[in-house]
Amino acid sequence: MAWQRTLARAVEAEGVGIHSGGHAKVRLRPAPVGTGIVFVRTDLGVAIPARAEHAKDFSFATTIGVRGAEVGTIEHLMSALYALGVTNVFVDVSGPEVPVMDGSALPFVQMIKRAGILEQNATFPEVRLLRPVRVEDGERFVELHPAEAFHVDYRVRYKAPVVGEQQLSFTVSPERYASAIAPARTFGFLSEVKSLKERGLGRGGSLANCVIVDEHRVLSGKLRFRDEFVRHKVLDLIGDLALLEYPLRAHVIAHKAGHALHVAAVRELLAQPESWELFEPERVAPLTVHPLAWEPVVQAAAG
Q: What is this structure's pTM?
């Protein structure tokens, strides 16, 4: 069987919120069986379960909120928790945004590994697709297809020649995620910086926590992967799909999508109960996997 998991001990980190620009602290705490992932605004005393129904803002990040309390930029942490199999955890946040750290999920993977993962001897079902589900917005789309594993095909295309068209096909496992996806950093285009600032976004963004590009150059130094842009989109997708609350067995195909379409796919799936079923798979030992091509050895500051 698949098992529910929490952390063996509490662990914390701090940094800047990429959009608010404010200082933020995050603390991960063990949680009992059946808790799920729950964000706690410690400054407001409000708990926000990480569910698709609570997602409400997708402006360059994913935000959840209840009763006027919100937590933004949750997707990188959610991605790490989901990919490493942590099902029950309290996430204490001191303000309205999770710290961006280095712009990737790697610091959160390191936090989870420092804390240790504890199996809780309670089973946890997975969602298995019975028929395809699709959401679209013009040429952008996300499709979920029946499959025996959680596999992602993601394609992006940008006008900037330095990025161009990139595609990644990836079967998600904890080991491969930690080395091939988690280190991929968030990115932005120099031409968008002014408009982001005018909208009150990106106030904490810098070359230290975001890959910045203009049409022909990467301004923030050497890339961690030559296709780092699409790898980060896969990272975001995994974090947004985690709002389903259950592990997903599906072949996910995404084309030029983003946070809004990622979450729309979760909501559409939940709205079509005839398209999926809950099942409890046999428990298996972790797979030994080989790294993808171009995987670097990435060092990040301890978070």
A: 0.90
